[in-house]
Amino acid sequence: MNGRQIGDVILDLQNISLRFGGVKALTNISFDVREHEIRAIIGPNGAGKSSMLNVINGVYHPQEGRIAFHGEERRRMEPHMAAMQGISRTFQNIALFKGMTVLDNIMTGRITKMKANFIEQAFYFGRARREELEHRKKVEEVIDFLEIQHIRKTPVGRLPYGLQKRVELGRALAAEPTMLLLDEPMAGMNVEEKQDMCRFILDVNDQFGTTIVLIEHDMGVIMDISDRVVVLDYGKKIGDGTPDEVRNNEEVIRAYLGVGH
Amino acid sequence: MPESATRALDTFPRLLFYHAQVRGAKAAMREKDLGIWQSWTWADVADHVSAMACGLAEMGFKRGDNLAIIGDNRPRLYMMMTAVQCLGGVPVPLYQDAVGAEMLFVLQDAGVRFALAEDQEQVDKLLEIQDQVPTLEHIVYDDPRGMRHYTQPFIHDIEELMAMGKIHNRNHPDFLLAEVAKGAADDVSVMLYTSGTTGKPKGVCQTHNAFIASARGGAEFDRLTDAEDILSYLPMAWVGDHLFSFGQALVTGFTINCPESGDTVMTDLREIGPTYYFAPPRVFENLLTQVMIRMEDASAIKQKMFHYFMKVARRSGADILDGKPVGFGERLLYALGGLCVYGPLKNVLGMSRIRIAYTAGAAIGPDLFRFYRSIGINLKQLYGQTETCAYVCLQPDGQIKLDSVGMAAPGVELKIADNGEILVKGPMLLKGYYKRPDATAESINADGYFMTGDAGFFDDDGHLKIIDRAKDVGKLSNGAMFAPNYIENKLKFFQHIKEAVCFGHDRDMVCAFINIDVGAVGNWAERRGIAYSGYADLAGKTEVLGLIQECVEQINEQLVAEGMLADSQIHRFLVLHKELDPDDDELTRTRKVRRSFISEKYATLIDALYGGKPSQFIETEVKFEDGRRGKVSADLQIRDAKTLSVVKKAA
């Protein structure tokens, strides 16, 4: 497709099972994510897609299974540790600070990179000042990248949905992640907004080499932009492979794409 | 020295190197990048231009070659113009929002060998039509974003071009100076394509001499200095921008400021606070509409204060600006208003520092014009066309009339032909249309006057008044005069109406298509709790039709009061289900209505208007921004407007 090189496996999930009481959200799922690839997770409603993302990101802790990130097996892990390791995410339902401006919201994405202590930040001197300028520069680069200069100082709550989604992507990008988890980045968007979002996702992947794991409902979008697809149904993996392989997989067709009668 | 210096300053490259010498450290250009305004001094600009010119020469650019420039207002795009002129070539700026097919004609006609594209989007458009433009050899781009995978050998980064140029300059240090010295004042300096209201666009060739004379005349007229700041945000392909952002900047040495992106113009305007400002009426109208919308949402006290002081301003603001006698009490009140309303308002509009503002391109509504002048903004009108380097008439300070376009600019001779057409002569006339001697001969008469095609007359003070395009002035079937533009402009002066098209030539009555302003009407609907899903839905609401009907009926009253045009009252109208759009060829890129195209495309609607039908179903093809096509359909209601009976004076 283009010049980027898909590298080695950086995230390896083995036999993951996740239960909430008696409800089995995920059963014995294994798959891996390679460096620089766009990996999609698809499946019908309630298939366990978001749970899967939450497991990767450390929000949920699976009862069984092993997760290795960069070859290192992970013990119990919390979301902020995932963030420190370079995993950023966006949410299915936008989770931004509605009253804050776009700039400030994206700035919060830099939080893991801030080293100044509380006192320095409160009085804005020393490291805090130096850092702020540096972070602002990074944030401006993100703003430029996502073409949202015109809403830089607008409170997020006043923006249309499609732009809010873009701001959320901006916040995730501000953390300069090596892996980006996108939970339905195109849900509820119109065709034009979807196209824009696709372009941004591909650009992020291409320019920064960021590995992307995304959940999406829109089959057309998935098949166009992802390198490999995992298909879940009722918490089980029923397919895994390139978009073409998945499209021709009998079980996937039956469960997800519908059966021709 | 002074004499030889001024004599030598007869081409734009010479002007540039002159500024680099005398005000080398002063800012020539600014652009907001990554949230911060970046500056280029005149010396920087001269360096960049030299590098670009030498780079072009290295790539084989020859004297007389044309170079297309496509993109938003970016410093390096402006620099490229001068670079091309250094080598005796001709820059051809194109409208950046044109789709590939529209650019095709110009690229073929001008036979461009080189093109400078702003970014990936523009490069893609060029690649799309490249096989139909056999002359095109090189594409240079300014913004490298997304360009990494373009491996075609004829696509170059502008940095690469400049690096090449610097090496060339080092090896041949005398080359560029010699090239600049070869330039003559009556060489063609730029080719601007007319918007093509009628037929195919024509390339208007203008010389250095024409633009410099025109720019200098205007600068002296308004006493412009090198301290002016101007925001360059209008399309580079438009003669107005070329004169104000390129011509006058190089003549006077003032600073041009490029906005961060098309969407940030309002913010950038506020941050820069230009002293000299140019905008078509549409922009002033949008600004006012926004202010009014925000005022309607303001608290009661604020609204009261605003309306009170606006009344004061309407009464005496314009007179104070014109230096006419105004009573002390009134002055005091106006000063108080300045503190409470006009000052903050101007600040919000980014107009606090404006010394001179111009508008042109279309008629400006008297209310709109009065509004800006009354709050102390020295807004003036000018009149001119691409063929005359933007202006032939300017309004002098202190002698502003709402309905005239002022007096002949310095060095311009004006004459009215027997049929009412305005004729122009002076140094700023076009050298000719590119490869179209027939069209050139047609537009310049035997005495050397350019025929503008506009009908107008001089009033008692020698100010020119424009009625309409000479060929657009038609007749109703009863013989009464019908000036569609005139009525449409009146309609457009309502904040709820964005666009209007009137029909009536050779017919027994006048009917109209209306486009609502979705911002203003949307806000109006919201406040009344009227739910709508989009433009088409809103345009079809009975309440909205009622609102528009009121506007139309007010116009009818005005027309009756004007006697001569009483027969042009609008009898029937409809609100179109889609906005007229340049992408659908309904408007020109400068947003002028393409009358004949519209009457063909919407023939069924016109028939329904004149056929007395109460409604009409229509399906229209639309082109989206990315070039795809779709269809919109609607069942349009047709309304009868109240007309007043015409009292015929006994002969």
From TrEMBL, chain A:
Limits of the ABC transporter domain: 11-259
InterPro entries (alphabetical): AAA+_ATPase, ABC_AA/LPS_Transport, ABC_transporter-like_ATP-bd, BCA_ABC_TP_C, P-loop_NTPase
A GO CC annotation given for this chain: plasma membrane
Pfam families, sorted: ABC_tran, BCA_ABC_TP_C
GO molecular function, one term: ATP hydrolysis activity
Stored SMART domains: AAA
UniProt entry keywords in alphabetical sequence: ATP-binding, Cell membrane, Membrane, Nucleotide-binding, Transport
Listed name of the protein: ABC transporter ATP-binding protein
Organism: Candidatus Proximibacter danicus
Lineage of source species: Bacteria, Pseudomonadati, Pseudomonadota, Betaproteobacteria, Candidatus Proximibacter
TrEMBL record, chain B:
GO CC term, one of those recorded: membrane
UniProt domain AMP-dependent synthetase/ligase: residue ranges: 19-434
InterPro entries registered for this protein in UniProt: AMP-binding_CS, AMP-dep_synth/lig_dom, ANL_N_sf
UniProt name for this protein: AMP-binding protein
Keywords: ATP-binding, Nucleotide-binding
Gene Ontology molecular function: any one: long-chain fatty acid-CoA ligase activity
